């Protein structure tokens, strides 16, 4: 048996829709695999009641198929589905690392990105790699048609998840199909600022770089309480706030000293709207970790 811990991720980071992503120190999915004649899946943990065990409907089944690696796969979900923290991607990335090792396929982490993205295609209709790339590689990733660029980063963040759900597929439907040139220019500037900030672990530059005028305004309208939560996080010291992935999670970038106050302020703001939430105080962290002996 092989075990892999695959981290949650926060994709888009405002200005990098379908391109940027970061791995988070917590939460994570744990995937255990054993060789078997046919793939079977069992699931425990966060939101497991809502996740199909049919290999044709689960992201890990798509990965097993893509690697021609049938297995008994046990998923312990730490990442709640449809919360904006790359839940389906964490399982896909974990399964890709585990099955690649189990069957000695010899693929590099970079080569596993399109394999794990097959799982994303299954659930969201498109093989967007911006969650699986950081879950596989860790740090900050830039995923384009030319491949993935990875930068190690360790900035403090707060990811606040309300007890509501937004399906990635639904949230993709509200993304504008066209944009004004001035908004594109603005977004390019923020994306470049964010990228430099990641290379320097600079909360101010990354915080500024989260801004975007194209996708986030449409997406945030799907999240009850978003404006109040964003304002509360900024008042408590966050250097920038945006929608995590497709939402409803909200991501704040900050200095470590402000993390606790920001987490409290975000949860209080959701609470004032009658919405329970949970906040992870964590940092940008490592990619999927393989435990070869159990
Ligand atoms: N292994 C898996 N882990 C989590 N969700 C999965 C998995 N396999 C399939 N799904 C389905 O994917 C959907 C969640 O995906 P999505 O809306 O993209 O949210 P998330 O960002 O949490 O992945 C749910 O319908 C869920 O049932
Ligand atoms: N680029 C995707 C990212 C979805 O992230 P998730 O964590 O909500 O699955 C999108 O914005 O649609």
TrEMBL record:
Annotated metabolic or biological route of this protein: Amino-acid biosynthesis; L-threonine biosynthesis; L-threonine from L-aspartate: step 4/5
Superkingdom of this protein's organism: Archaea
Cellular localisation: Cytoplasm
Stated family: Belongs to the GHMP kinase family. Homoserine kinase subfamily.
Source organism per UniProt: Natronococcus amylolyticus DSM 10524
Major subcellular site: cytoplasm
A cellular component term, taken from the record's GO annotations: cytoplasm
E.C. designation(s): 2.7.1.39
Alphabetical keyword list: Amino-acid biosynthesis, ATP-binding, Cytoplasm, Kinase, Nucleotide-binding, Threonine biosynthesis, Transferase
Lineage: Archaea, Methanobacteriati, Methanobacteriota, Stenosarchaea group, Halobacteria
UniProt name for this protein: Homoserine kinase
């Amino acid at each position: 048996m092989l075990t892999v811990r695959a981290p949650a991720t926060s994709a888009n980071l405002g200005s990098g829709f379908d391109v940027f992503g970061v791995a988070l120190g917590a939460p994570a999915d744990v995937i255990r695999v054993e060789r078997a004649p046919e793939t079977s899946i069992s699931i425990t943990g966060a939101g497991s009641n809502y996740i199909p065990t049919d290999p044709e409907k689960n992201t890990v089944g798509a990965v097993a198929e893509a690697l021609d690696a049938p297995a008994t796969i046990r998923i312990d979900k730490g990442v709640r589905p449809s919360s904006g923290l790359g839940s389906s991607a964490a399982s896909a990335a974990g399964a890709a690392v585990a099955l690649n090792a189990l069957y000695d396929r010899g693929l590099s982490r970079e080569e596993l990105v399109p394999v794990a993205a097959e799982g994303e295609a299954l659930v969201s209709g498109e093989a967007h790699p911006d969650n699986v790339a950081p879950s596989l590689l860790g740090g900050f990733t830039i995923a384009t048609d030319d491949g993935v660029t990875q930068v190690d980063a360790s900035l403090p963040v707060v990811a606040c998840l309300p007890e509501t759900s937004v399906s990635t597929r639904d949230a993709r439907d509200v993304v504008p199909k066209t944009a004004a040139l001035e908004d594109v220019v603005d977004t390019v500037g923020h994306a470049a600022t964010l990228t430099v900030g990641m290379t320097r672990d600079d909360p101010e530059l990354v915080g500024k770089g989260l801004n975007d005028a194209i996708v986030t305004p449409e997406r945030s309208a799907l999240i009850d309480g978003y404006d109040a939560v964003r304002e509360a996080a900024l008042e408590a010291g966050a250097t920038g706030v945006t929608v995590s992935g497709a939402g409803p999670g909200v991501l704040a970038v900050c200095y470590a000293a402000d993390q606790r106050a920001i987490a409290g302020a975000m949860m209080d703001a959701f609470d004032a709207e009658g919405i329970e939430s949970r906040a992870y105080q964590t940092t940008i962290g490592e990619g999927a970790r393989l435990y070869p002996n159990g």
